[in-house]
Protein: RagB/SusD family nutrient uptake outer membrane protein
Amino acid sequence: MICVMKKIYTIFSLTLLFFTGISCKKVLDLQPTSSFSTNTVWTDPALIQVFVNQIYKESVFAFKDGGFGWGSQTDELYSNFNWCNENTYIMGQATPDNQGSSFPLNYSSTLNYWTTLYSTIQKTNQFFQNVVQADTVGHGAQLNNMKGEVHFLRALCYFELLKRFGGVPLITKVYTVNDNTFNESRATWDQTRDFILTDIAAAAAILPKTYSSADYGKATLGAALALKSRLLLYAASPTYNTSNDASRWQAASDAAKAVIDLGLYSLHGNSTTYNTIFTDFFNSEVIFSRVFSATVQEDRYNTLYRDLSPNGYNGYSAYNVLEQMVEDFDMADGTPFSWATNGANPYQNRDPRFYADILFNGSPFQGRGAQFYEGGLDSKESSLSPWNASKTGYTIRKMVDESYNFNIQPYSACQWVSFRLGEIYLNYAEAQAALGNSGQALLYLNKIRDRAGMPAITATGTALTDAIRHERRIELCFEGHRYFDIRRWGIAEIGSKDGLGITITPTSSANTSFTYKVVTMQKRTWVPSFYYYPIPRKEIQINPNLKQNPNYN
Structure:
């Protein structure tokens, strides 16, 4: 079960409640041993909180669902085991018929989530319909806060739909078993944006700026404003703002600045402690995160450290970094990497984030250097689970706490950061650059680079926009942004170029010198439909008013 916060996790685990489907008229039929009637739930604030916790669990995606699965459909990553059926997309084989059912705990699912997200939206609508029954005597503040949380979570669900599909039906009613007809049409992209903004505004009017430590993980004002910042940045971007309307860029700028002006957050760590952004829970940079407990195993969620580590450490190498991602990390002096110039020692003198984010041949990790060279402990020729070896010659180091021994216990407490200040700075810089305000754009871009230990950027105009895009690629890698960034910029094809890896051959008996050869390790296919996901066929069969996304049959 998710540990959205320690308090929530305890309540949810003890009650063992699960709220399913649109046909449910009761939560469970009996009480009081392990279940509660509908009337009991909606008159007890503690049980209402359990219901809200389930919405958190279903709407806040993490790790493979929130980041790695998306990165594996771009020029960031290769999915070693195709856990989220990423290959269906990168091979150009996605159709309305092969999306299937996708519940977040089913790690063999796709990332489509149309059905799942609408099921969760049904729960948010059930909440708003039924919470009025609650006895507010002595609990008014608690219930009011939950209303703010659910407005935020519904906005988040609709944003997840918008990212995947574009405009979608906007549902606020609660369907029951008596509803046999579904005829809602899709809203436009802008209408869906405005609907989300309305929920965000409702959440922002209620949610507090901070909580006590017992309630860390709940949505805050900052979380609502951060979602608004991301949404309005998308709305201002070329794909959705074809006329380059400056007012959209101004709205995106204002939304990002509103988060900054809260004064609640600051960049965490420095060039040598960068990874602590993700391993230090609820630190100063984190605006909203999902934390998993180490007390109950949640496959593919709190097995993160094992899943990302190489086979020679008894890890799974689940997601492999592509060579093109490696090459895009600049040299420490800010110049681009080049095999012609830097190829003799390709992993020396790079951007400090390279060492925090990527495990490469020779990288010190858990007491030894990683051995991705041919015949090494972490290679495909290793005697240690070679089927779990990286296919590209790299694995993800970002978010991994290497001090944790997953060989003793495979699951561990870990944090997925949904929103952080570093992203907000880059949102603001991008919007300011689009508005022609180079000074402000450079100020916030260089705050990120200074924390990373990289030299300042001085570019203007188109070169500044390119620099900001490059910085997003590096600073936010593997966090789920790249897939949607290249779509909102109108350059999605770049993510479908063939996946590259590295072959490393020792040239000394001591395995201390090597030659390097860039190789194509995965052929990929671009298809025009891949700007959006397909709506599952079964949903269109249920509701004939749904119009399929372009270029799907």
